[in-house]
Amino acid sequence: MPQPNSGHLADNATSGKAGTAVGELKFEAALAELEQIVQHMEEGRLPLEESLAAYRRGSELLQHCQQQLSDAERQIQILENGTLRDFKSAGGEAP
């Protein structure tokens, strides 16, 4: 007997849209994917394995979004004399 909503979400949840690694996503794309995962999980019709995969992907996306917001906040705090200077993010990469 087929299960509703199975198949596609598990693929998206484990590999991201089009196989995009979480670290490569821009904030807006990561947030949109996270919102989609939450919506599918709230529907409550996912099999256990798909729910776990979606939860893992959602956790990664949430952490990525929080890091990007934190980096943006630090950039704003670095404003000196009206100019924004570069800084190294917590991940060690310049923006």
TrEMBL record:
List the catalysed reactions: Exonucleolytic cleavage in either 5'- to 3'- or 3'- to 5'-direction to yield nucleoside 5'-phosphates
UniProt-listed Enzyme Commission number(s) = 3.1.11.6
Where does the protein end up?
Answer: Cytoplasm
A family per Pfam: Exonuc_VII_S
Q: Which UniProt keywords apply?
A: Cytoplasm, Exonuclease, Hydrolase, Nuclease
Give the transmembrane region(s): none
Recorded GO CC terms? cytosol; exodeoxyribonuclease VII complex
Instruction: Extract the InterPro entries matched here.
Output: Exonuc_VII_S (IPR003761), Exonuc_VII_ssu_sf (IPR037004)
Q: Which residues form a coiled coil?
A: none
First-level EC class: hydrolase
Listed GO biological process terms: DNA catabolic process
For this UniProt entry, the molecular function terms from Gene Ontology, in alphabetical order, are: exodeoxyribonuclease VII activity
> What's the domain of life for this entry?
Bacteria
State whether it acts alone or in a complex, and with which partners, per the record.
Heterooligomer composed of large and small subunits.
State the family it belongs to.
Belongs to the XseB family.
**Job of this protein:** Bidirectionally degrades single-stranded DNA into large acid-insoluble oligonucleotides, which are then degraded further into small acid-soluble oligonucleotides.
Stated name of the protein: Exodeoxyribonuclease 7 small subunit
